[in-house]
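--- STAGE predict ---
source: upstream dedup step, 1 unique chain passed
mode: sequence only
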Amino acid sequence: MSERQENLVEALRIDPDGTVVVLAWPQDDAERRQVVRAAVGGGADTAVYHRRAHLHVHGNWQAENLPVNLSAWALASVWRGIDIPYGLYGPVVVTGPQLTELDEDLAEAVRAVCAAVVEIRQEWKVRPSVGEEQARAELLAGARHSVAALA
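--- STAGE serialize ---
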């Protein structure tokens, strides 16, 4: 097995509550697309926020019946380097480009950002944020710090 293959994670699903789940990743591209559709709960659109990763979101990503995914939003914002002005909704799948496996360093970043967001959301239960703008800033600061700590 090559070094490149040893440092890959199949694919990750980020749930709206911040849980990160490793997805079984078949060899066939059509089967991979089916795994993504099943994981996001319907047709999937691909969003690129990092040159080595794709985020797959529900095709109807602004649907009112899907919960906001703060962890995926924070990850996309950190990877893009800006405060994304829109939300990501429902479960989000993270893969390498073109449905390839995800590099381990990016998988670590996904896990770190999700853990930071979960921790901040837990803190909000006893110390609510002052407002929406401050909440976004707090999430992004926690997410950026968690990624920087990996370097």
